[in-house]
Amino acid sequence: MAFSLASFYMVILIYATQRRDDELAELREQLTLELALLSEQKTTKVIQLLEEFRRDIPLVPNRTDEQADAMAQPVDPERVFDAIKDTHAQLNQVGTAG
Q1: DSSP alpha helix (H) spans, 57-76
Q2: Residues 28-73: pLDDT tens digits?
């Protein structure tokens, strides 16, 4: 009886620890995503400023840089969130089908 009670206590302790670790991992993933989005916004702004600076210098001939124009477009966080939700939905479908 005592051994069963001790085993039950250990299972609950391990479950609680694992649940806490899962929550911390999820928070780390969210923080990483937020930092990546912030970094993307900063990089986009730097590219926009550099392109504006390049256009304002009279010694530099005007030209169109399609790659810089594409990279100067800010990322829409809602699209990123939707893409993440879609990916999770697909993973859940694969997990339940398999």
Answers
A1: 66-71
A2: 998 998 899 899 999 999 999 988 888 888 887 878 888 888 888 8
Single pTM value for the model: 0.62
Q: Where are the domains of the chain?
A: 2-97
CB 41 within 8 A of CB 75: yes
Q: Report, as an integer, the average pLDDT of 3-31.
A: 90
Q: How far is CA 59 from CA 7, 9, 15, 54, 68, in A?
A: 78, 76, 67, 9, 19
Residue (of 17, 18, 72, 21) closest to 50 by Cα position = 72
CA distance 24 to 12: 18
